[in-house]
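Exercise (ungraded).
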Amino acid sequence: MTEGAAWAILFLPLASFLVIALVIRPFLNRYDSLSGYVTILAIGAAFVLSLMALAEVASGKGEIGWAAHSWLVIGSLDISVGILMDPLTAIMLVVVSGVSLAVQIYSQGYMKGDSGYSRYFAFMSLFTASMLGLVLSRNIIQVYVFWELVGLSSYLLIGFWHDRPSAAAAAKKAFLVTRLGDVGFMLAILYLFFNREAFLSQGLNPFEIGHINLLAQGGELAGAQIVAMGSGVATWVALGIFAGAVGKSAQFPLHVWLPDAMEGPTPVSALIHAATMVVAGVFLVARFFPLFEASTTAMGVVAAIGAFTAFFAATMGLVMFDIKRVLAYSTVSQLGYMMLALGVGAYEAAIFHLFNHAFFKALLFLGSGSVNHATGTFDMRYMGGLRRHMPWTYITFLIAALSICGLFPLAGFWSKDEILVAAWNFGGGLGQVVFWLALVTAFMTAFYIFRALFMTFHGEFQGGVEAEHGGHNGGGHGVHLAESPMVMVLPMAVLAVLSIVSGFMANPLNSAWGLGVIPAHWFVDFLDHVELVSLHAAKFNLVMAALGTAVALAGIGLAYLMYYRRSVDPDDIAAGMGPGYTAAVHKYYFDNLYEDVVTRGLFYRGLALATDWIDRNIVDMAGTAIAWVGRNMGRAIGKLETGQVQAYGAGISAGLVLIVVVFVIWS
Amino acid sequence: MLSAIVFFPLISAGIILVLLRDARQIKVFALAVTVLELALAIAIFVVFRVEDYNVVDNMELVEDVSWIAALDIRYHLGVDGLSVPLVLLTALLGMCAAFASWSVTHRVKEYFVWLLVLQTAVTGVFVSLDAVLFFIFWELELLPMYFLISIWGSGRREYSAMKFIIFTLLGSAFMFVGILALYFSTGTFNLVELQGVEGARLLLPAGAIFAFLFIGFAVKLPVWPVHTWLPDAHTDAPTAVSVMLAGVLLKMGGYGMIRLAVGMFPGRAQEYAWLLAVLAIISVLYGAVVTIRQTDLKRLVAFSSISHMGYVLLGIASVVGAGGVVNAVGLTGAAMQMFTHGTITGLLFLVVGLVYEKAHTRHIPDMGGLASNMPVIAVVFLLAGLASLGLPGTSGFVSELLVFLGTFEVWGWITALAVFAIVLTAGYILWMLQRAFFGPQLPRFAGVGDTTALEAVPMVALVAAIMVVGVYPAVVSDVFALGLEPIVTSLQQGAVP
């Protein structure tokens, strides 16, 4: 593969964005289906190139090296751009372009007839391009650039229906909350430059990802021994980068934006949750993994935040009635899973889970969009019984649900198992806590996803959007109980197949089963070329697999009793939970804390009001006061100028006397 | 060539005054002049880059003739890397201002005469190498500004115009004392010869002269707490004048600060860098916090300028260096911030003007849903807003990044606070967009339309400038870095070990 072909992976979707924005939307808007075709063509081509890149990296089992290109040089500052093509990049490229391609094909059906059809595909192209650019970057500032562009694309797509106030608010919230994390990311970049001597003296560049990772661990480059940077430096840089990841991956305490991000069109959610925005955070930590490994503190923070988020978000997923919110909290929780895997050193397991999660989570969202297409609502209380009307949606949703639960032999099973094993093996107090949180999360995951499945597809139909809005249509499309069109079902079917088989990329039992085409642990070994000091991916552990499966089955069983057989009344359980239930329904009051108390109260009505008052009444008035003094002094002195010689004479005499008196006293 | 770019607008103003009568004729003529002026500026930029023409003491395109021989005041023009981009910026925004003035109907002839005189004055400031000439252009700029704001402005325009004049004059008084003190100490007004003059025997303490110069430029930049003229002047000025005021007039302050205050007194600048850094961070945070409370679209953009110009001062505060080394990054960032803020805020004022012209309101709570009425303006507003909040891919990111990178090693915690300000910036920009442009379409804006082709010209020009510098900043930053080299070298001698 040439460097030009690699760049094309980024520039094809980018060109699609520009063509739609500058040509199709202004001049050919009557033929807006063109926008969909251009996007699919561009992303399809990028997908093919990504597969080629993966094949090449896999066959060579390692990095393809290309030179960096100078972008901005000022004195000792040297920022370059270029492509880093290693196994992590290659896998991410395939995930991003593949899921995006499926989503774009589906979108042709879902967005049909929307007046912003061209704008939608323009933004989607930009979104995909930004994410691909992020994955390809070899320089931390280049990463930051695309990182922010991913955020911009999300902002544009979450606020896609900009005439809805809630969409505009959600878009702003997503951007601001993630930007709060980006402050940390930026400070990490600044801190790297601050410590540039350690890099420059050894012929390294403080912004090159490879050099940062190398200097974090120490090692050898072109025969020369590289002295590692202090672990203090590594800790601060890693924590700064992690702050950015916490924002983008919606980890506690910056998780609040993701559930609101549902305001965008559903295929956007599928893309955000599966392959772009939120996985960018996990990718970022993985990208700088050797740096994180150099700091026990940073790793501990990652593990703790990840495990807590996994648990905390899952509890909220248990009680939501909006199917997309259930899935949103599920994503937050699953991202926490990946983070905790990274934190305990299971780098490959985390990426493996990201890989599998991309398929089943995209599928779950596309399924929820398909359901919405038929019922007009996202509220599960007004759904029910849809399996008879939408068999394809039902089957694919079921497959995805089984996969996310981690049931053998679906994709989710393999990666969840590896994460649990890694957490167990990590040991120590932190390892214990992380492991048990992960296990409880697995139980809750199975419960909430099957709760959603039963409420949506089983039982009797509850009237859809018409029931929700008291008999009349809420302004959107009405109830139309039928399977979605082929263009929507097909991508779902493909993703369903992938949700089953993607786990075999790292199946430890492949050779035992005669599936020798893919070697056992292939995925893990492939990623492993990065020089890691951590424990390698754990071998298959039967006890752990059984435990994970039992926990998942228990969750499904409880959901079955409560929402299928209805032998246990959910309201009783809710009442039994008391304030805990109420708190979970209210998202633990984080929105109230952040929006009402901190932003509106303390900041807007407090600090900002006070500062504004000071500006008007003190700083500005000071100028006016000085002017007033000057003017009135002038007036007062002016009054003395009467034109009467006697008065002047009296003044002169008085002054003379005064001078004489002073002179006398002085001497 | 420099004489041409300085006096072409002035001569054209004379032609308008004497020869032209018809309003439309005047507008077309003025547009043509500013377009030609921009072409000339681009030509100068290119000549500067590819050839060394009339080089004297690091300055290119030098013109130097005696003017008032008795006092050794000379007609001395020249450019280096610091001034060439600013000349280009002036011409670019001058053109945009002329396009934005198409809808002016009141006393058209006078209006365009003053607008062109203004352009001559500002360009003159950036190319003068004689302190007296510099000061004359500096003061000349006040005249058209006063009339433009007080005659064609809105709101409390006379108050605002007067406030602007008094504040600036106060600053110039300090500056003039500084210049005279230098002249009577050294016998020269030559700005190039006066570089690094602090070592010479001076009539006043070097610190005092530095302070005089600094105050003069701080008012113009503006720096907290002498910023209060800015929101009033911006808000009440007509659109084109706001564009010029925010786009280039503020940059006279930053330019003077670097060329005169820092260039002549590198040691004093290093001594007082802590004060500069403190004032800078106050401007950045205080400006951003006050911006959030604004309900007038134009006033909001005006306050954001105070915050953004604080980054210029922050970049300048990096001159003290760290570990015995002064990096050129912070100063280059300050210069870049001047350039990018000029294009970005110029564009913001331009679109605010268009919105006001069409929707007849600037009161944000009265607005909403305008993205449906004016999609193109909304897109441009969004782009300008994103550039203002420093989104990568736009020029705003590059200059902020450079300021942060250059200053962090010198003023760590202060820079960290400044980085935090990017969240505040995003907050007020996005909240403003949300309130003004998003939400359901309002019936009261039923007949409100989008931009016309003529109005689109300056928007396209500025968007292009923002994107080009954002994607490949070296086009401008290399030039600035070249111009700042001598100053950085002189700073290096006094760097804190």
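Further reading is listed at the end of the chapter. For now, observe: The longest strand of chain B covers residues 60-68. Chain B touches chain A through 57 residues (CB under 8 Å).
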